Amino acid sequence: MAGTDNLALGPGKEFDIVRSLLAEWGKSAERIGDDAAVLEVPDGEKLVVSTDTSLEGVHFRRDWLNHFEIGYRATAASLSDLAAMAARPLGLMIALTLPEADRSEARAIATGIREGASAVLCPIVGGDLSSGKVLSLTITALGSVARPISRAGAKRGQRVYVTGHLGGPAAALRAWNAGAEPGERDRARFAHPIPRIDAAIGLAERGATSAIDVSDGLIADIGHLAAASKVCIEVDLARIPRLNGVSPLEAASSGEEYEIVVTAPEIDVVQFSSEFGLDLTEIGRVVAGSSGVQLLNDGQRVTAPLGFDHFRDK
Question: What is the CATH number of domain 159-302?
Answer without folding.
Answer: 3.90.650.10
